[in-house]
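WARN retry 2 of 3 for item q-0093 after timeout on previous attempt; input resubmitted unchanged.
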Amino acid sequence: MEVQSSSDVVGRGTVFSVKVKPSMGVSEGTMTVSRFEPGTLIEFHGRMGKMEPTVTNICEPDARGTRVTRRVEIEPSGIMRAMTPVMKRMIGKGNEGFLANLKQLLEHSAG
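OK item q-0093 returned
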C-alpha cells in the first residue's frame, strides 16, 4: 500500500491518497479522516472507484497494554455486490496482516 497525505498534521479532514494492490490489479483513491480522537480513535471515509469503505481504528487500554481494533465497512453496489463474501474474507486477512505489522512495529520501537 502506498499512502501520501495532504498535510503534515493529521486531523479531521486530512486526505490521504492511497494505492492498494488487492488480489487483482491496483486500486487508487482517497481516504479522508472523518472522525479523530487522538490516542483513541481514527476513522476514514474512502473513495476507491465505485467503492466507499469506512475504516475505523480504535485503541483501548488493556491489562497487557493497548488493544487495537480495526473495522472495515463496505457496501458494494451493482455487480460488485455479488463479490461481497470474497471481499469480506480478503478484508479480514488484510486486517490480520495490518494488525500484526502494527504490533511488530510498536513493540520494536518500544525497545
